[in-house]
């Protein structure tokens, strides 16, 4: 009696695995034929990456060699793809014309790489990364030398880039999203990955949108939409895959994104099954191997044993780039009821984030140390209740299950041996910290001062605090003397400011990693602060992060209660002229401003401007020579003046002129908070200089300088700083004082509370007594101003960040078409 | 008349800055704010803070929260609820992404259109 004929289309990972599962259950049920488009035996596709990188040979990655086919009497038809299925007469036809009839048919055709249809995508030298042919093409290109561009910064793209750069090519990765592997990694991990790859010599361009691949007959380079060109002799497209459903569609099987299958992997035709990346089950398609194993088991159970039923798979990802450990699983998008547990160890380059919801792990991202990836993945799949081990979860399996975890996290610390290392940076043991506490160090700062524990990277701060609590009991109030920057960090403002230059930190995610932020991307308190600290620390180098700025600074205008904006152009020293007034009047009419008001800062405020109109308003004001008044910014606001010696019968000096010079020197400078200056021509003080951050009172013999005044919520008169003889000295002292404030105050401290905290004597010592120090401060201020003094309005009026001012689109429900792109 | 689809295509994901937002006015209805998180997820809310109608599109986005620009209420992008001590809720418009394009639920987007 002849056995029923089982045909498999696709000699890949799922097709052969399905056969293995069937053979294991019943080796004699079917006569088996496998058609494969590739001229090879069944190999491990995921090992193409190490093959490309030179870590493996083809023989190493073969799963089933020819002997396996022979031993199991499997007819392998390699290099001859099936081109049609006839379901009525149950036959398949191959390209060679060969026709075979089947009783059961399994489709395992995998996926096709997606090719973005940019001009030049069909040039010679453009390849995908899917099979042996692709690897062969890449190896030939690498042998010929030259540069490569990889389009796509996902798993595949990065593995291709890694392999090519090991093969000696200079590689540029183009990724359209802002961070790498954004579907598997969060911003923090994506950023670390980018840094690590760049350190290995790859160029990574994020937010890079390919416009064209250019070349005469073969690839010569890639042009981005930004106009940037990257020369290359090889372009690898790794932008995604699509289930290969061509045959199924031709045979009229039910398909969605993939071939529809039921829980037993049966398609809409009872004699045809499908498995692997080509299928869609319960609305899901997969692009990893783990689900294939599950599917193949259920397929074999259903076909030859007791049906078990496939219920879908949860997947996890690892990047196969040697020396870079990345793991991700589940959902880490956060949201309601989700709690993030974050641990960062900058010294060892580690970032771990576990997302917990309703006492269950629902997602994990690990960078640098992926040892516990499988454990988290297991907790996730089993939906295990983690309430008991919650506090120790982030430290990994060894710690959490070592009995150290309990409802009280301090018990874990108490349980540590005396010689256990608490602070890795400074090699401080538990015994030493406890000794210091017993010796009278009752606060975190005191412990830091006498043992150096937690004084470097700060990652052990919770441990030290735990020891304080355990050792002092109720006597430890948990308070720190200086407040931390925000709840995302255990560092104070001062710590962060000191550590940024010390560790050479240059970007917000880098600070968060180096200083162990406990949240993935900070909050609305720390992001603006970090943005400012970095800007202050690296003038000219740091690229301002617009999304870390409060709306007013982002829009360069003041938001009003109705969502419109007010616009205040600079009016140097409170002096204006007919041309400026005319321009303001014209703008007010043209853009239907609802009010023009003289402000308390001696200039004009135009109210009720729509965000879409702002660039046009600014262009008009620029045309009349006016620039932004920064009425919205933590920056120099106004320099108020009085008329002074030029007109006033009491005036002693040219207070108006000095005010204008001061404003021209200081405008554009970002600071911890807003900063106001005034210059009065005599002690009658009509410019109210004694309630300003920096005030000048002119007298016959010179200029009296005073600082730290505030007219706002808490009225504070200035403190007298010193008296100087010349305008230039007044300007130099002003610059030095501003720079000291810029470098040392906490973000959102006005000068008044800052001066009160550090003391007037300190300010005098730095500005008046230490002449060399003052000169250096003044010089640093002027250096920074070289990069600050360009009008932000002019750039916006010229089109920069135009998207911020435009609607994404507009919906017009009653008109056709119903959607109008902006 | 052709049948009206359930989803409205409003543009490409990369037209939004990460951790940023853009606006989508609706003729005769209320303006919608479209947000993008650090992970590239997209959310849509009515562009009106439950406190005093502040334009949420102009707030600072962090994680899946937006902080209102007017008085710093924190609003969940996922549920539209005010977080912490504050009480209030803003309508959420369903969003899905298909091939890099943003689709929003038509019915919710057009709610209140005369
Ligand atoms: C327009 C103006 C009122 C006016 O019509 O005169 C004004 C308007 C606002 N002030 Fe003021 N202040 C204005 C002069 C002042 C002054 C007087 C001065 O500068 O001589 C003071 C007291 C002096 C001082 O700052 O020490 C002043 C003390 C404040 C304060 C309290 C600051 C403090 O340290 O306590 C705030 C709140 C804040 O900044 O957090 C504030 C905040 C504001 C804000 C920005 C409120 C806000 O966040 O939306 C208002 C914005 C209005 C807008 O959209 O333009 N405004 N504000 C004045 C603009 C001056 C300019 O030309 O830029
Ligand atoms: C470079 C690389 C690295 C990867 N790394 C990982 C990883 O680290 N972890 C992970 O989980 N996954 C990884 N994957 C994904 C994994 O390889 C796939 O999920 C898996 O191979 C899918 O198996 P499949 O059998 O469905 O498809 P395939 O393995 O692609 O098999 C389909 C086969 O069908 C053949 N075929 C198609 N049409 C026809 C036809 N008409 N006639 C005959 N034959 C046909 C194809 O030629 C192909 O050989 C990686 C993939 C690549 C390309
Ligand atoms: S005093 Fe109060 S109400 Fe008046 S402008 Fe200043 S902040 Fe607004
Ligand atoms: S209007 Fe949003 S917080 Fe007040």
From TrEMBL, chain A:
Organism (species): Sphingomonas psychrolutea
Ranges of residues in domain BFD-like [2Fe-2S]-binding: 422-469, 485-534
Annotated Nitrite/sulphite reductase 4Fe-4S domain residues: 633-771
UniProt xrefs under SUPFAM superfamilies: FAD/NAD(P)-binding domain, Nitrite and sulphite reductase 4Fe-4S domain-like, Nitrite/Sulfite reductase N-terminal domain-like
Pathway(s) where this gene product acts: Nitrogen metabolism; nitrate reduction (assimilation)
Protein name per its UniProtKB record: Nitrite reductase large subunit
Alphabetized Pfam families for the sequence: Fer2_BFD, NIR_SIR, NIR_SIR_ferr, Pyr_redox_2, Rubredoxin_C
Keyword Metal-binding: yes
Domain FAD/NAD(P)-binding: 5-279
UniProtKB/TrEMBL annotation, chain B:
TM annotation in the entry: none
Record flagged with keyword Metal-binding: yes
Organism superkingdom: Bacteria
Keyword terms of this UniProt record: 2Fe-2S, Iron, Iron-sulfur, Metal-binding, Nitrate assimilation, Oxidoreductase
Species assigned in the record: Sphingomonas psychrolutea
Record-given protein name: Nitrite reductase
Lineage start: Bacteria, Pseudomonadati, Pseudomonadota, Alphaproteobacteria, Sphingomonadales
The encoding gene: nasE
NCBIfam families: nirD_assim_sml
Family matches, as Gene3D superfamilies: Rieske [2Fe-2S] iron-sulphur domain
Pfam family, one: Rieske_2
């Amino acid at each position: 009696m002849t056995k029923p004929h089982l045909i498999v289309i696709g000699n890949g990972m799922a097709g052969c695995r399905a056969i293995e599962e069937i053979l294991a259950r019943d080796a004699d049920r079917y006569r088996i034929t496998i058609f494969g488009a590739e001229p090879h035996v069944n190999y491990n596709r995921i090992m193409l990456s190490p093959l490309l990188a030179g870590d493996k040979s083809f023989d190493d990655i073969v799963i089933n060699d020819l002997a396996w086919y022979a031993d199991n009497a499997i007819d392998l038809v390699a290099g001859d793809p099936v081109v049609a299925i006839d379901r009525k007469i149950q036959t398949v036809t191959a390209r060679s014309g060969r026709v075979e009839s089947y009783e059961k048919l399994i489709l395992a055709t995998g996926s096709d790489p997606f090719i973005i249809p940019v001009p030049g995508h069909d040039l010679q030298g453009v390849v995908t990364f899917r099979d042996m042919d692709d690897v062969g093409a890449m190896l030939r290109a690498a042998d010929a030398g030259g540069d490569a561009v990889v389009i796509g910064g996902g798993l595949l793209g990065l593995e291709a880039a890694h392999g090519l750069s090991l093969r000696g090519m200079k590689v540029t990765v183009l990724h359209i999203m802002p961070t790498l592997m954004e579907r598997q990694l969060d911003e923090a991990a994506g950023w670390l990955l980018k840094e690590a790859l760049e350190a290995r010599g790859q160029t990574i361009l994020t937010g890079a949108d390919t416009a064209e691949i250019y070349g005469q007959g073969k690839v010569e380079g890639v042009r981005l939409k930004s106009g940037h060109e990257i020369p290359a002799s090889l372009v690898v497209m790794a932008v995604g895959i699509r289930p290969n459903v061509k045959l199924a569609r031709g045979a009229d099987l039910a398909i969605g994104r993939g071939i529809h299958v039921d829980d037993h992997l049966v398609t809409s035709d009872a004699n045809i099954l499908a498995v692997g990346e080509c299928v869609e089950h319960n609305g899901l398609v997969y692009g990893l191997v783990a689900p294939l194993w599950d599917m193949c088991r259920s397929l074999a159970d259903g076909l030859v044993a007791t049906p078990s039923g496939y219920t879908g798979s949860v997947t996890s990802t690892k990047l196969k780039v040697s020396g870079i450990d990345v793991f991700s699983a589940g959902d880490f998008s956060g949201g309601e009821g989700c709690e993030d547990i974050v641990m960062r160890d900058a010294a060892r380059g580690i970032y771990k984030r576990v997302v917990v919801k309703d006492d269950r792990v629902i997602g994990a991202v690990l960078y640098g140390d992926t040892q516990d990836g499988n454990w988290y993945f297991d907790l996730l799949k089993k939906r295990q209740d983690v309430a008991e081990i919650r506090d120790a979860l982030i430290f990994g399996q060894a710690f959490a299950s070592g009995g150290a975890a309990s409802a009280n996290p301090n018990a874990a610390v108490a349980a540590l041996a005396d010689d256990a290392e608490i602070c890795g940076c400074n090699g401080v043991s538990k015994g030493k910290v406890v000794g210091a506490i017993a010796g009278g160090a009752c606060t975190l700062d005191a412990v830091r001062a006498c043992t150096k524990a937690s004084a470097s990277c700060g990652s052990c701060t919770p441990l030290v605090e735990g020891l304080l609590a355990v050792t002092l009991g109720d006597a430890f109030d948990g308070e720190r003397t200086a407040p931390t920057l925000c709840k995302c960090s255990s560092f104070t403002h001062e710590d962060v400011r000191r550590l940024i230059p010390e560790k050479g930190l240059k970007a917000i995610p880098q600070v968060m990693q180096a200083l162990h932020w406990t949240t993935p991307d900070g909050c609305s308190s720390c992001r603006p602060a970090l943005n400012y600290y970095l800007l202050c620390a690296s003038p000219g180098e740091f690229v301002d992060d617009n999304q870390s700025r409060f709306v007013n600074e982002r829009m360069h205008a003041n938001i009003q209660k109705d969502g419109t904006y007010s616009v205040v152009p600079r009016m140097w020293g409170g002096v204006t002229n007919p041309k400026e007034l005319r321009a303001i009047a014209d703008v007010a009419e043209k853009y239907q401003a609802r009010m023009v008001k003289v402000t308390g800062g001696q200039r004009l405020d135009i109210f009720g401007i729509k965000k879409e109109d702002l660039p046009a308003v600014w262009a008009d004001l620029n045309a009349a020579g006016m620039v932004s008044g920064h009425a919205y910014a933590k920056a120099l606001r106004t320099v108020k003046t009085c008329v002074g010696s030029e007109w006033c019968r009491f005036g002693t000096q040219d207070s108006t002129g000095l005010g204008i010079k001061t404003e021209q020197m200081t405008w554009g400078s970002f600071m911890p908070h807003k900063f106001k200056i005034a210059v009065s021509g005599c002690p009658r003080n009509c410019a109210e200089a004694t309630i300003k951050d920096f005030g000048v009172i002119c007298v016959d013999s010179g200029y009296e300088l005073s600082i730290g005044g505030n007219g706002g919520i808490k009225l504070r008169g200035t403190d007298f700083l010193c008296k100087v003889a010349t305008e230039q000295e007044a300007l130099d002292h002003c610059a030095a004082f501003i720079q000291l404030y810029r470098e040392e105050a906490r973000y959102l401290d006005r000068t008044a509370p800052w001066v009160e905290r550090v003391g007037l004597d300190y300010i005098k010592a730095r500005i008046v007594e230490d002449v060399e120090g003052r000169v250096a401060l003044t010089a640093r201020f002027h250096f920074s101003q070289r990069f600050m003094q360009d009008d932000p309005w002019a750039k916006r009026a010229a089109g920069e960040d135009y998207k911020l001012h435009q609607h994404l689109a507009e919906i017009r429900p009653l008109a056709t078409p119903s959607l109008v792109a902006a | 008349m052709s049948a009206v689809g359930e989803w409205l295509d409003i543009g490409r994901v990369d037209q939004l800055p990460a951790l940023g937002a853009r606006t989508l006015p609706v003729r005769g209805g209320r303006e919608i704010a479209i947000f993008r998180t650090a992970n590239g997820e997209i959310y849509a809310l009515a562009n009106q803070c439950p406190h005093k109608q502040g334009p949420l599109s102009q707030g600072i986005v962090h994680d899946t929260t937006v902080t209102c620009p007017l008085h710093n209420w924190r609003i969940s992008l996922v549920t539209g609820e005010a977080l912490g001590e504050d009480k209030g809720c803003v309508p959420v418009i369903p969003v899905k992404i298909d091939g890099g394009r943003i689709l929003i639920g038509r019915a919710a987007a057009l709610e209140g259109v005369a």
